[in-house]
Design brief:
- Helix content is 76%, strand content 0%.
- The chain is mainly α and 200 residues long.
- The protein folds into 2 domains: 52 residues, no CATH class; 136 residues, Ferritin.
- Helix 4 runs antiparallel to helix 5.
- The N and C termini lie far apart (89 Å).
- The N terminus is likely disordered.
């Protein structure tokens, strides 16, 4: 068998093999795209993911940050007002009153700072679904059971808020809000430490 015949036979076998594998052509085309100097990367099969991984971290929008902080304050105030009536531990009630005072002040400051940026931002304090669920769970508890659940939620909530503040303080694009984040970070850190040391 001459070389030309061998080549034709090999090509036929490849085509027949591909018929049994509908993904073969797709894989071949993907490989060609991946080798093209002008084509987008499809090596992982997730172009958006590749772009996200290679790009710089996306800064949270000023509106999203303000809304998150407003909802955090509202969440703390609602939970802590509930603690004043449903909690059993005097230490928990004392902590709750401190949270009401601190987060009421934080809300006022946030509104002032958000109103100073251009364009002006109006905070939306609507609670997230997980926050609403936590408030509903607390409504159903009394006494020692309430105390234990309230403290656990406080620890988690302050940890989340602290992470959001630190994230915006580094990546945010509104200097007044960056300053607000940096000012509030030590306050929230203090609240987190208090919550962690709180014995229900």
């Amino acid at each position: 068998m001459n070389p030309k015949t061998c080549s034709l036979l090999a090509a036929s076998v490849f085509v027949l093999g591909s018929c049994g594998d509908p993904n073969a052509v797709q894989r071949t085309n993907s490989a060609d795209l991946g080798n093209s100097p002008t084509a987008p990367s499809v090596k992982s099969g997730n172009v958006a993911g590749d772009l996200h991984n290679s790009a710089a971290p996306i800064a949270p929008s000023a509106q999203d940050f303000v809304n998150k902080m407003a909802a955090s304050d509202e969440f703390e105030i609602e939970m802590s007002k509930l603690a004043l009536t449903n909690a059993q531990s005097p230490a928990v009630k004392d902590f709750a009153q401190k949270m009401i005072d601190a987060h009421t002040h934080s809300t006022e400051k946030l509104k002032k700072v958000a109103g100073s940026v251009a364009p002006m931002i109006i905070p939306d304090s609507t609670l997230a679904p997980d926050q609403l669920k936590s408030v509903e769970q607390l409504h159903a508890k009394k006494g020692a059971d309430f105390d234990q659940q309230y403290v656990l939620i406080q620890r988690d909530a302050h940890q989340r808020t602290l992470a959001a503040l630190k994230d915006y303080s580094v990546k945010g694009d509104q200097p007044p809000l960056n300053a607000f984040a940096n000012e509030v970070i030590p306050i929230v850190s203090g609240h987190l430490a208090m919550a962690r040391n709180l014995k229900p």
